[in-house]
Amino acid sequence: MKNILxxxxxxxxxxxxxxxxxxxxxxIALVFFATLADADDFVExxxxxxxxxxxxxxxxxxxxxxxxxxxxxxxxxIVSPEFLQGFQIMWNxxxxxxxxxxxxxxxxxxxxxxxxxxxxxxxxxxxxxAVDDKGFCLAQKPVDEKTNEITAIPELLDIxxxxxxIITIDAMGTQTDIARxxxxxxxxxxxxxxxxxxxxxADVKLYFEDKDFKSNCAYTTTTEKARGGIEKREYWQTEExxxxxxxxxxxxxKSIAMTKNTIIKNxxxxxxxxxxxxxxxxxxxxxxxxxxxxWMVESYHWHLDVTFREDENHTLEKQSAFNLNIIRKLALHxxxxxxxxxxxxxxxxxxxxxxxxxxxxxxxxIEY
Length: 368
Hints:
Layout: H1 2-7, H2 24-36, H3 42-51, H4 53-56, H5 69-76, H6 81-95, E1 106-113, E2 126-132, E3 137-143, H7 149-158, E4 166-169, H8 176-184, E5 188-193, H9 198-209, E6 218-226, E7 229-238, E8 255-265, E9 268-278, H10 284-293, H11 295-306, H12 318-337, H13 347-356, H14 358-366
Parallel strand pairs: 1-4, 4-5
Antiparallel strand pairs: 1-2, 2-3, 5-9, 6-7, 7-8, 8-9
Helix pairs in contact: 2-3, 2-12, 3-5, 5-12, 6-12, 7-8, 13-14
């Protein structure tokens, strides 16, 4: 962590030098430490800094003490998001334990809106993130609105090394150009089908509604307790798709799949059926792993709201809000691996524990 913190000193500061009283690298580090220690807005970050200034001087220069919350907010609005993403990449590389490529990594791509960033005068930031199956965000890209995910996803893929990964994307990203981009990057895809892919969706749905479809499909199932009930997940996959008129339009398309989730809760049974296209050959356990793995990005977005109360943060300046999103993701990575000494804590409670004895825990994190 000390080496990574040194990276912050390489930040390009575009402020007028004669007017600068607080180092930009100090402010970024202060926001990062305070975020870990349960601070959620700029006022709380300033309070945290002033309460722990003596301790922070062990790691930061702070030539003129702790900056005001207004200064912190202004600086976070001009820090380059690309610089912070470089910080993120360094951290991910440090965590990466080479698995030798024996197991394909699942990379789930999905978007989340920063609800607190919007008001009657502007739309809120919508950020598309790539989250791996260990629950670490590898990269993200802001877009003006949800519909622009279609253009953001290829740009996100361009900054990632996804070779030999399995890319999972919800229906918004089920586009021929995106499938072609994934295959060009030498990765596989599992893409959700919904009604926005009109004929393809209708044809795949019709295939799985045929009473004889099971004879050509590989099958697996799991049953577990979930969401206060019993959930049965069933998966079918087939490579018998020569009949599919759209097959030639989708780069590398090899199989289609269906899932059926049946939940029994309080004596009431509900069922959800979903359809997929994939470049994976027939291996129902592998495609089931990928489909289930996409849940990781949804869980990740849930943590941003529950652990960091992101949607309650009303930072309106868009670049500042995006930078805070990256900082929260870095903090989330730390929370996943840091041992507070207390067992079975949620990430939210881990953050609370760090806040109750910030100097002890931050020292442990920095010396990691």
